[in-house]
């Protein structure tokens, strides 16, 4: 080129392209297509030569084929810039570009390491704390022209790679970026100038990245490393200063601060223990132990000076590594299962086809050698016309979603949807096979791991799906919508919700957002079962509508979106802006399948959390668009889109009362329910419409009635019901069942009937009390809600009674076995049985609500306690139940079983869905009968219509005496069988929480990924229905109050009920808090506590070594215990966390985390505050977060484990806390005695709690001081509990003897809390300050010195006692909690503890302990004597050191002569405590003295001491 050139900076690694004047004329102002020319060429062109075989399958453009036309002898001269064309016949500039073009080199991904996911599972967003800027120093360094700047940029790049690799292995969900590099790289101080050179010459650092000469990055890396080796310290400092000048001061401060935080955290924090008994602690402990190695390069490679005595011994390291070994193995096993999924290949229908192989470098290859990045090339080379025959891995499918050809994108999305759908279905069905062989473990059908991997951090599925939804091909958008629907597990979640809504007992539902437990704290006694919190903080979802800030790092990044998606896939999609995209697609008149998928996605998002429901509501035009499309066209046609549209509006109304009010005010309610106001549909019209049309009509009407039911629950639209009463009656009557079955529309008709009765059930709940209508009317006049009128109840109950008369309904009477003859009716199929049971359940539930509204609230104002009159429908209902054989009465021989027995048989024998509905029928039946009995008892029978009959019939007598009383035998049998069933269910259901979460995957609802569905399963739903039935049966069961003591059978029955109530408490979920409330009311009744007190006294009399209680509780004591314990457990476990931030941000998308900032907000650790209150909710859907259910197994220990450490605690609160503790000790001993009176080998929730938790709870009591032990009654109870747990430990010790003393440790530190040493120090401080040598307090402290306790805990306890100089306050060894052998065997071999023993000896801390025969001196005497005189082959240097310490101490302190003499004379094999003082034989003493002389190694000063001992011992 001629003339002056404005040369730009050279881009390293790029080849300059020089163009001639003729070539430039062709380039300027023209658009050149690949392989084509605009102008007709005069010269003939050569035919293109494809580099690969073409195949009509979508692929990415970077994968080829690359056209390579013949260019001749084409050369590029880098010096003069001229083209050299020798013998070229066909020349154009496209050929030049084609020859220079290379495929895009994708960044090589590291092999998948799921230890990173452990941190993500535990992550609460803290990794984004302090995020000041997203400015990447690599981008700055890449713009630097000079070589030195390139070198420093490469240095930063290498450091970033190394930090990121380390973060996968060691950080708890925190990801290092270039912003996290060490400030030493940016500091130009002299001591840091040498660091880059040292880093470059470090062999480990050079080996970290292998040089690949074929890539541009490798060339740059090699050049940078070579240049670094040649640079001097001054040149490096100059380059660093140049980079510093280009970075903003705020960014530099941010980098330095974050690096300091990382180093401080890694240095001082031991890994956190996973909450809820979940097993991440082992993995974290291992990672923390390696953190100093991985991150040490940030400051210096020089090892720190080792401090003597601070380095743990090899034995201690082994104990730490073995701590929580079981939990550590669980996490490792899970990680391997998930990591194995990345090699699985799937067919297009979602089935597993095989597994990939791995090459020498660790990259995953398919069976024909292609990786995920080259799967498109593999498809091009396929010759048999089936590109998917070899299958695809999940990673390959995700890569293919970003292809440039729509066909391949569609194929990949269909495969993803098929895999997700099959995975979630198989996961819920527990289809899992895990086999192991000698070559390794293989599990090709581990769908639980497949689901977790697909939604995990590896594939980044959420980002790919969100990008695909922006596609411009309809087929791709539809496939993407189906994949998102599967990822949100919409279908499986809707099955659970539909069954829950059909079960009339559910008044609320639960949001589906993934949650995790908050960590336990000292105020809760380290008990598990903390408050749940969202995996992704709600404020991190909000970004739409915010203005980007001007400061660095204020903009939202894709990485932030990915982080949120890893925590919660639905939250990640919301953050990525899926709602505006769905709104746009809905406005463009989508196809019916696409519209159905989009509405399904919106339903799944609305069920996620209040934040996501508000996001749907606040998305501009979205809800109104859905409503408009419902009535826009095809007015009379019913399709799935309309059904789901109503469901969406209903879910949004459930989520917030304000949303429901908005729908009513703006007309959306009438718009979505207009079908209910048109002419009523008759049975003939339903039959004539056909099967499919009747199915759609039924589903639409059901959703519309449910929508109306939601409004009624809020108190809206109640008065409008009178307008629809005439049209409703057609569905309330009993239809011609034979005609329905003949036309196959029984399920459709019954589903509408069921839903209307459920609506009436809600309306009945808003009835004013029958006997105080005027009073209630005056009160409600001031409210903004409406009430239902009693004038409508008459015809409704008449229709309901038709359903109660099951003997007169064809098919139904045969189903219940109530007719003598067959009648020629066929048996009902399962779907028909389901629909029938739903109708009966809804009818009984509605009648129960009506009867409850009749029962007077206060009977004190009634004349003689009797009602003046009762409505006629009350005895009618009772008589129909008696006449139709619902109950079996005592003394009557019935040929056929009662309806109650038939329903319970269905519960026991049938599949889960039928079992759920039959259990609901049983609940409704028990409630109706109980309400009728209560009303009849309060009625004045003399004025009642029954008195006009001179002779009462059998039915009238049963009604007058009480239906339950007449059928109590059948009710008790049902209760006994149900209790056995619940005990078995509680025992068989494994702990669903996984690693402190509801499930291991970040999906929603069933998508939590727990085995079998976890909390979101029909099994859990069925068990919770059983607990509801249990509470109803316990309420109607009689407890004898006539006498204080019960006989053996009665006592066994009572203890069985208490035991079952404890087991049922472990099953209840968030929507069943009322069940746990009723269980507490049952257990803490004064009569129950009286009988349990009697059981304690019998228990103590039957146990050897227990002294009987010499005192009795008074009536006021039982009443006090009942009140304080019930209040405590309700507040502790049923209290809802008071949200720290006000819920004033109704529009979440206008919220800013900081001024101009949009960084992800940190999820701060929740603390279990003691003053939790239950707030009135404005939503019909409960949040799983901010509450505690499900309960941990040791929930009953909270009464003695919870205390308040706040300074400003009132005296009344402290006094009440002490009373709770006293009552908790009493209740704990009561339930510990329950197995003694159990008549069967039933599951015991108390016995299933490890003894380590119970001993810890007893220790927590003593943190109060001596207040509890000063009370005589509580002291005796406490001592009895100590003996009970001591016997358990003794049994374990005896079993260990048969196993050659393989100790099963009491793992206080790993099971309770990793910082348990702090608790020990506090306990010992209290012991030293207040105990004055109290033997019960001393026993509790001494248990931590037992050989079955972890080494670290024993070492901490001994040091605390020694430093406080209270070793002498410990009781003698034979008066401790367990047998003295368990303190002595096996012989101590831990270096730190042995040194601590000698230190206490030398310091004089053992002087008083030796004179008082304390357990401390007995331990030292035994373990030191055995270690010194019976050691063989190992740890000789430690033995010699300890002996020399003891001899030197004796030379300085003559008062220790007696102690040293006892040490030499001690005999190991002493079977009783009296044998410990018996002297050793003379020959034995001589051998030991000779050993001491050998240890002295001729040292004259020590030999003099040994000779002095010899003269003392042998004289």
Task: Give a structural overview.
- The chain is mainly α.
- It is 54% helix and 2% strand.
- It contains 68 helices and twelve strands.
- The strands form six sheets. A two-stranded antiparallel sheet has the order 1-2. A two-stranded antiparallel ribbon has the order 3-4. The chain has a two-stranded antiparallel ribbon with strand order 5-6.
- Helix 27 packs antiparallel against helix 28 and helix 47 runs antiparallel to helix 48 (1073-1083).
- The radius of gyration is 39 Å and the shape is globular.
- The N terminus is likely disordered.
Set out the fold topology:
Layout: H1 21-27, E1 73-76, E2 83-86, H2 93-100, H3 115-122, H4 137-142, H5 147-170, H6 190-193, H7 195-201, H8 203-208, H9 216-230, H10 233-246, H11 249-268, H12 281-294, H13 314-322, H14 325-341, E3 344-346, E4 352-355, E5 357-358, E6 364-365, H15 375-380, H16 394-400, H17 406-428, E7 435-437, E8 440-442, H18 447-454, H19 461-468, H20 474-487, H21 490-502, E9 509-510, E10 515-517, E11 532-534, H22 558-567, H23 569-575, H24 578-587, H25 592-606, H26 610-618, H27 622-632, H28 640-655, H29 657-665, H30 668-672, H31 683-688, H32 691-714, H33 721-732, H34 737-742, H35 746-764, H36 773-780, H37 793-804, H38 812-815, H39 830-854, H40 873-883, H41 899-909, H42 912-938, H43 954-961, H44 963-966, H45 968-988, H46 1018-1036, H47 1048-1065, H48 1073-1083, H49 1086-1102, H50 1115-1134, E12 1181-1182, H51 1198-1201, H52 1211-1232, H53 1234-1237, H54 1251-1262, H55 1267-1270, H56 1272-1298, H57 1308-1312, H58 1316-1330, H59 1335-1342, H60 1351-1363, H61 1381-1384, H62 1391-1403, H63 1407-1411, H64 1415-1429, H65 1436-1452, H66 1457-1465, H67 1482-1496, H68 1500-1514
Parallel strand pairs: 9-12
Antiparallel strand pairs: 1-2, 3-4, 5-6, 7-8, 10-11
Helix pairs in contact: 3-5, 5-9, 5-10, 5-12, 14-18, 16-17, 17-18, 17-20, 19-20, 20-25, 22-23, 25-28, 27-28, 28-29, 28-32, 32-35, 35-39, 37-39, 37-40, 39-42, 40-42, 40-43, 41-42, 42-46, 45-46, 45-47, 46-47, 46-48, 47-48, 48-50, 49-52, 50-52, 52-56, 54-56, 58-60, 60-62, 62-65, 64-66, 65-68, 67-68
């Amino acid at each position: 080129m001629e003339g002056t050139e404005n040369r730009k900076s050279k881009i390293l690694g790029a080849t300059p392209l020089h163009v001639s004047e003729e070539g430039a004329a062709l380039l300027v102002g023209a658009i050149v297509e690949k392989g084509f020319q605009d102008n007709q060429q005069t010269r003939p062109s050569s035919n293109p030569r494809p580099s690969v075989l073409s195949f009509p399958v979508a692929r990415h453009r970077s994968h080829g084929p690359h056209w390579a036309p013949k260019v001749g002898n084409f050369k590029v001269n880098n010096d003069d810039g001229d083209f050299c064309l020798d013998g070229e016949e066909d020349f154009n500039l496209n050929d030049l570009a084609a020859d220079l073009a290379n495929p895009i080199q994708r960044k090589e991904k590291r092999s998948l390491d799921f230890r990173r996911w452990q941190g993500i599972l535990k992550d609460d967003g803290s990794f984004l704390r302090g995020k000041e800027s997203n400015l990447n120093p690599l981008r700055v360094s890449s713009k630097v022209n000079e070589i030195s700047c390139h070198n420093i940029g490469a240095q930063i790049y290498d450091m970033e790679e190394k930090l990121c690799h380390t973060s996968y292995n060691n950080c708890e969900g925190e990801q290092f970026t270039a912003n996290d590099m060490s400030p030493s790289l940016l500091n130009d101080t002299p001591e840091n100038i040498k660091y880059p050179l040292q880093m470059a010459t470090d062999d480990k650092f050079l080996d970290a990245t292998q040089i690949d000469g074929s890539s541009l990055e490798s060339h740059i890396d090699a050049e940078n490393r070579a240049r670094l080796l040649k640079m001097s310290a001054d040149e490096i400092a100059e380059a660093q200063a140049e980079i510093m000048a280009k970075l903003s001061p705020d960014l530099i401060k941010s980098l330095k601060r974050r690096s300091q935080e990382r180093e401080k955290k890694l240095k001082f924090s031991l890994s956190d223990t996973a909450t809820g008994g979940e097993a991440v602690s082992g993995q974290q402990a291992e990672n923390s132990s390696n953190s100093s190695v991985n991150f040490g390069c940030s400051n210096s490679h020089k090892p720190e000076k080792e401090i003597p005595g601070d380095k743990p011994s090899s034995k201690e390291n082994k104990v730490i590594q073995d701590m929580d070994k079981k939990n550590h193995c669980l996490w490792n096993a899970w990680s391997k299962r998930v990591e194995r999924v990345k090699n699985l290949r799937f067919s297009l229908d979602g089935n597993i086809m095989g597994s990939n192989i791995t090459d020498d470098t660790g990259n995953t290859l398919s069976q024909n050698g292609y990786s995920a990045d080259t799967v498109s090339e593999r498809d091009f080379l396929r010759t048999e016309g089936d590109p998917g025959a070899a299958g695809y891995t999940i990673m390959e499918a995700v890569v293919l979603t970003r292809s440039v050809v729509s066909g391949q994108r569609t194929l990949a999305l269909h495969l993803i949807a098929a895999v997700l759908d099959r995975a979630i279905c198989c996961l819920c069905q527990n289809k899992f096979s895990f086999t192991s062989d000698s070559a390794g473990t293989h599990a090709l059908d581990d769908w639980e791991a497949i689901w977790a991997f697909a939604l995990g951090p590896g594939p980044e599925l959420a980002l790919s799906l969100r990008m695909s939804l922006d596609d411009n091909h309809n087929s791709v958008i539809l496939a993407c919508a189906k994949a998102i629907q599967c990822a949100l597990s919409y279908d499986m979640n809707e099955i659970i919700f539909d069954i829950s809504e059909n079960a009339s007992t559910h008044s609320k539902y639960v949001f589906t957002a993934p949650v995790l437990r908050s960590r336990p704290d000292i105020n809760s006694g380290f008990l598990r079962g903390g408050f749940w919190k969202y995996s992704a903080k709600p404020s991190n979802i909000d970004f739409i509508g915010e203005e980007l800030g001007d400061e660095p790092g204020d903009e939202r990044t894709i990485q932030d979106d990915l982080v949120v998606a890893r925590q919660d896939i639905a939250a990640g999609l919301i953050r990525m802006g899926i709602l505006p995209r769905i709104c746009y697609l809905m406005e463009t008149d989508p196809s019916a399948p696409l519209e159905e998928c989009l509405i399904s996605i919106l339903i799944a998002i609305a069920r996620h959390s209040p934040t996501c429901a508000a996001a749907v509501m606040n998305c501009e035009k979205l809800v109104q668009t859905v409503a408009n499309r419902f009535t826009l066209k095809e007015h009379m046609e019913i399709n799935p889109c309309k059904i789901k549209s109503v469901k969406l509006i209903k879910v949004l109304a459930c989520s917030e009362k304000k949303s429901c009010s908005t729908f009513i005010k703006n007309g959306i309610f009438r718009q979505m329910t207009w079908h209910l106001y048109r002419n009523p549909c008759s049975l003939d019209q339903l039959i004539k419409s056909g099967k499919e049309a009747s199915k759609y009509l039924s589903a639409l009407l059901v959703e519309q009635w449910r929508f109306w039911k939601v409004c009624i629950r809020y108190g809206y639209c109640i008065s409008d019901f009178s307008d629809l009463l005439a049209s409703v009656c057609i569905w309330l009557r009993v239809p011609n069942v034979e005609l329905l079955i003949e036309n196959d529309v029984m399920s459709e008709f019954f589903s509408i009937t069921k839903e209307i009765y459920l609506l009436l059930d809600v309306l009945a709940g808003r009835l004013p009390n029958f006997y105080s209508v005027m009073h209630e009317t005056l009160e409600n006049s001031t409210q903004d809600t409406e009430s239902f009128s009693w004038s409508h109840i008459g015809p409704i109950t008449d229709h309901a009674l038709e359903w109660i008369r099951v003997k007169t309904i064809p098919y139904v009477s045969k189903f219940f076995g109530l007719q003598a003859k067959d009648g020629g009716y066929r048996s009902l199929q399962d779907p028909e049985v389901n629909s029938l049971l739903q109708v009966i359940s809804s009818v009984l539930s509605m009648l129960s609500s009506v009867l409850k509204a009749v029962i007077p609230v206060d009977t004190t104002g009634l004349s003689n306690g009797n009602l003046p009159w009762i409505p006629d429908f009350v005895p009618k209902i009772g008589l129909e139940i008696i006449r139709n054989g619902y109950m079996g009465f005592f003394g009557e021989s019935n040929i056929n079983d009662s309806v109650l027995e038939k329903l319970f048989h269905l519960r026991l024998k049938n599949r889960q869905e039928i079992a759920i509905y039959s259990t609901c029928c049983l609940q409704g039946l028990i409630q109706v009968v109980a309400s009728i009995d209560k009303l009849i008892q309060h009625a004045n029978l003399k004025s009642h219509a029954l008195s006009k009959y001179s002779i009462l019939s059998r039915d009238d007598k049963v009604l007058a005496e009480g239906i339950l009383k007449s059928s109590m035998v059948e009710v008790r049998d049902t209760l006994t069988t149900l209790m056995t069933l619940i005990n078995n269910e509680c025992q068989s259901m494994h702990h669903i929480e996984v690693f402190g979460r509801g499930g291991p995957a970040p999906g929603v609802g069933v998508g939590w990924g727990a085995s079998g569905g976890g909390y979101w399963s029909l099994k859990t739903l069925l068990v919770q229905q059983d607990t509801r039935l249990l509470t109803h049966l316990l309420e109607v069961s009689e407890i004898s109050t006539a006498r204080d003591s019960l006989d053996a059978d009665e006592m066994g029955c009572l203890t069985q009920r208490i035991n079952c109530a404890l087991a049922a408490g472990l099953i209840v979920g968030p929507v069943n808090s009322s069940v746990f409330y009723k269980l507490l009311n049952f257990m803490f009744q004064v009569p129950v506590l009286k009988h349990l007190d009697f059981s304690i006294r019998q228990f103590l009399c039957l146990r050897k070594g227990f002294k009987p209680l010499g005192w009795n509780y008074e009536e006021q004591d039982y009443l006090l215990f009942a009140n304080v314990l019930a209040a405590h457990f309700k507040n502790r476990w049923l209290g809802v966390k008071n949200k720290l931030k006000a819920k004033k941000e109704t529009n979440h998308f206008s919220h800013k985390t900081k001024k101009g900032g949009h960084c992800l907000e940190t999820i701060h650790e929740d603390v279990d505050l003691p003053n939790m209150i239950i707030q009135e909710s404005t939503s019909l859907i409960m949040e799983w977060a901010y509450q505690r259910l499900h309960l941990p197994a040791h929930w009953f220990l909270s009464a003695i484990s919870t205390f308040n450490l706040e300074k400003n605690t009132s005296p009344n609160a402290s006094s009440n806390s002490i009373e709770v503790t006293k009552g908790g000790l009493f209740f704990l001993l009561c339930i510990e005695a329950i197995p003694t009176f159990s008549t069967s080998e039933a599951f015991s929730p108390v016995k299933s709690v490890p003894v380590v938790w119970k001993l810890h709870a007893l220790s927590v009591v003593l943190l109060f001081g001596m207040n509890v032990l000063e009370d005589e009654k509580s002291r005796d109870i406490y001592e009895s509990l100590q003996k009970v747990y001591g016997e358990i430990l003794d049994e374990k010790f005896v079993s260990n003897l048969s196993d050659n003393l393989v100790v099963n440790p009491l793992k206080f530190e790993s099971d309770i809390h990793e910082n348990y040493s702090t608790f020990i120090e506090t306990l010992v401080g209290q012991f030293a300050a207040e105990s004055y040598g109290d033997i019960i307090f001393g026993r509790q402290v001494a248990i931590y010195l037992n050989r079955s306790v972890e080494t670290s805990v024993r070492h901490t306890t001994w040091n605390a006692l020694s430093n406080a100089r209270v070793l002498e306050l410990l009781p003698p060894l034979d008066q401790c909690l367990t047998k003295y052998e368990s303190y002595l065997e096996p012989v101590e071999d831990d270096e730190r503890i042995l040194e601590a023993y000698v230190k206490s000896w030398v310091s004089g801390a053992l002087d008083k302990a030796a004179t008082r025969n304390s357990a401390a001196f007995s331990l030292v005497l035994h373990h030191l004597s055995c270690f010194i005189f019976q050691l063989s082959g190992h740890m000789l240097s430690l033995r010699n050191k300890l002996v020399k310490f003891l001899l030197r101490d004796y030379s300085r302190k003559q008062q220790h002569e007696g102690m040293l003499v006892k040490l030499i004379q001690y005999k190991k094999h002493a079977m009783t405590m009296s044998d410990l003082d018996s002297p050793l034989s003379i020959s034995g003493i001589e051998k030991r003295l000779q050993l001491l002389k050998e240890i002295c190694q001729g040292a004259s000063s020590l030999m003099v001491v040994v000779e002095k001992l010899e003269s003392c011992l042998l004289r």
